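In response to reviewer comment 3 from the previous cycle, which asked for concrete evidence that the modeling workflow produces usable outputs, we include below a single protein chain processed end to end. The sequence was submitted unchanged, and the resulting structure tokens are shown without manual editing.
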Amino acid sequence: MKRRRSIALAVATAAVAVTGLVGCGALDKAMDCVKTAEAIATSVDKLQQAVSDASNDPTKIEEALNSIDTELGNLKGTTDNADLSKAVDDLNKGVDTVRESVKNGDTTPDIKPVTDAAAEIGKVCTPG
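The workflow returned the following structure tokens.
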């Protein structure tokens, strides 16, 4: 939850700063970033929890990955910003990497590709 709040707070701060400096185009990007940050933070939390609980119920990882796929599909359709679209694509690739690990029998997959992609979303959403 702390990571989710940190990402959302950073993005909201960036949104306010960008809006004040640039105008409507920046407002659109800032709103896309806020939506993206919230969805990504939620997705990463779900995946982290699923990996932690995998020994109790390994199907939770697959359920979390499916949920992330759904959220990212919806998110991709809400932005026309090329940088955000690329970051979402990178997150999809991270999810695919985790999914492949699970498919190969790894019940505690490395989710670093997902967390790295989530960090990239934060970079894209930060002005400067």
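The first helix runs from residue 2 to 22. We consider this sufficient to address the reviewer's concern, and the full set will be provided in the supplementary archive.
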